[in-house]
User: What shape does this take?
Amino acid sequence: MELNFVTGEAALAIGKALVIADLHIGAEHDYRAAGITMPSRTGDAEKKLIGLVETAKAKRLIILGDVKHRVPGASFQEEREVPQLLSRLSHHVSVEVVPGNHDGGLEKLCPDITMHPSEGIIVDGFCLTHGHAWPDAEAMDAKAVIIGHNHPQIEFRDKLGHRWRERVWIRTSLKKKPLSSHYKKLPKKLPDLILMPAFGTLVGGWAVNNPRDDGRLVGGLGPLTRCADMKKALAYMLDGTFLGEISKI
Assistant: This one.
């Protein structure tokens, strides 16, 4: 079974499983706390996800972490909208979560949703995990390891100096030397690493082609990203446009 990227969306399909990452429900609460009035977009996310599930004829919706935004704890918005969203989605598809670093307490908010270990799961030969923690050793035998957590973007600049960012997919290879400090045994051929763009549109991101981006994000977040060959990483826009190697963009 191969994976297919959903054109124009931060989602991919593996057989009958639709995979997304980084919803960050409740991000609007932070904007309001900063004095920026912003209505909830959870309803829009629900409609889009139901549409994607129906189009893909998916039987499973697998969310790779950061379903909610606030850490630690949860805002009033998250306490209300996260259970409501996942419950409504579960009427259309089996909802599963591989928890991320923002998902503390999620199992209490949504006790009826399937929660997988943060180390990830294997689906048709692909390892799916959020990316903030080391996956199980079996991930090294996967076809590819697919993670969220980084919110990869590309920064564009026009001749007048205007800058804007677009979400992108990143695909690259893993390096044995840094991996060997954690895994005792590695296969001859390592899996590729695929970084998913954030499904949530209100969260920031890592401009992979801007070395002046937040110093914490240079090289990416999470143990696997730091074991990746980011200089030769390939970037693809959501519409499928191939941008080439990050180092040459």
The CA atoms of residues 6 and 247 lie 25 Å apart. Residues 42-56 form the longest helix (15 residues). The domain at 3-248 is CATH 3.60.21 (Purple Acid Phosphatase; chain A, domain 2). The mean pLDDT is 92.
